[in-house]
Amino acid sequence: MSTKNTKHAFEELALSDNLLKQLHKLGFEEPTPIQYKAIPAGLKGEDVIGIARTGTGKTLAFSIPMIQKLASGEEVGLIILPTRELALQVEEEVRKIGRYFGIKTAVLIGGASINPQKIKLRRKPNVIIATPGRLIDHIQQKTANLSKVTYLVLDEADRMLDMGFEPQIQKVLETVPKNRQTMLFSATMPDKITKIAKKYMNTPVRVEIAPAGSTAQNVDQEAYIVGRHDKLSLLNHLLKETEGPVLVFSRTKHGARKIAKKLNQLKHKAAEIHSNKSLSQRREALNGFKSGKYRVLVATDIASRGIDVDNIALVVNYDVPDQLDDYVHRIGRTGRAGKSGKAVTFVAPEQKRELIKIERMIRMNIPTMKLPDMERLEASYTKAEGARGYTASRSSGYRRASSAYGKSKPAHRRSGGGKTKSYGNSTNSYASNNAGKSPTPRSSGQRSRSGGYRSRRPDTNYAARGKGAPIQNLPDQFRASPSTATAKAPASRRKPSARPARVNTRRTRTKGTSR
Length: 515
Known about the structure:
This protein is of the alpha/beta class. 30% of the residues lie in helices and 14% in strands. Helix 12 links the parallel strand 10 (270-273) and strand 11. The longest helix has 15 residues, at 84-98. The N and C termini lie far apart (126 Å). The model is unreliable at 379-409, 414-433, 440-445 and 462-467 (pLDDT under 50).
């Protein structure tokens, strides 16, 4: 009979009586499958490779044997994680159980002042929880002594490798003592992790709860084929139809910021979390999402591993992830602790192949839903865009959008400097802003008041120059009449005449004269 359908108790795992008592006080009655298999191997001192998706209780799977082994000695445990948020949450779980046994912790993460971390390291903590980059900083400054590390954990190892931390991880593995116990946990098993396990681990025991890349069975997955202009409208519709907290994933930091801003304008309480935010801002957003202050949290993939909230009702992939493995971690934020959840992915028409790749990876079909009847919003698709892709500008009428979100360069950065004109089907903003004014032609290269060069205005004197017919669809105020085609330019615009030859007016001395 599989462990999935069998209930077990922590009493079966050879834990100490005091540790069992504290686990029951904290409400932990039954171990999860990954905990039931990994804890006994950890207590025996064996190296472990755990393959399990997010939300399966991996934190307790490595922290419980660590606490029991470190409670009776001066040995040190080291836990390495990819993100700040995940490091803080793991430290909270370890401290929650370990404080009853005198376990001291220290968190070494970037984005925070390094001096308080140095003070905690001087107090000789029992457990160090760190991100790779900040841990290397302490090693180089010789403020972190890893000579007593006997218990090493690499959590979310696949994500750390995806983020480019392979050199830092190898340096840490070469720094810690060789006589140690190593536990590695990951949701997927790429070739890089296999190489690290062969090189730095001693005959590890493989604990696999679900095949690599699999998703939770209690999460309903759906997909919508939707254009970028209708994504916000669809998201607004789903938020109205869903009760409970909603987590939205964006591919870029700029996209996360813009989505959160639009949702707040639509009266949805939303916060954003990405690498451009400071540590205090990210913690405030995450804590506000947990407490209910914010109903919607918009995040990027960098922060996807550090969001551990049990009651998320809906996960929305506003953008298809660049890395296929990120899909598993995104939807793993819902349906945690045995609860049901729902995940919806917005797929652009040109991204259908990406959806097929995701289905092959998770070994299941994702049903494609028909777009519902929803209120069309103009937040991400302005009236001026139309088929030609123009969007309104305060200073220059209409300008062409340059990105998926309608963003383009500001007026002072675009060539032309000031007013720009659009011909054909678009509205002439210059004519509307300067009605009744007599145009003053400017030559190319003339400086404007702001100091930049103005672009050359259309030259209407084609007949006088012998350059053929004038431009079609020009405003009347720019057309040259036959009577003025050969007229002289105003005196203020004429070219200055050649400078007269210089006359020597100095008095010259003749020979034999005095001053």
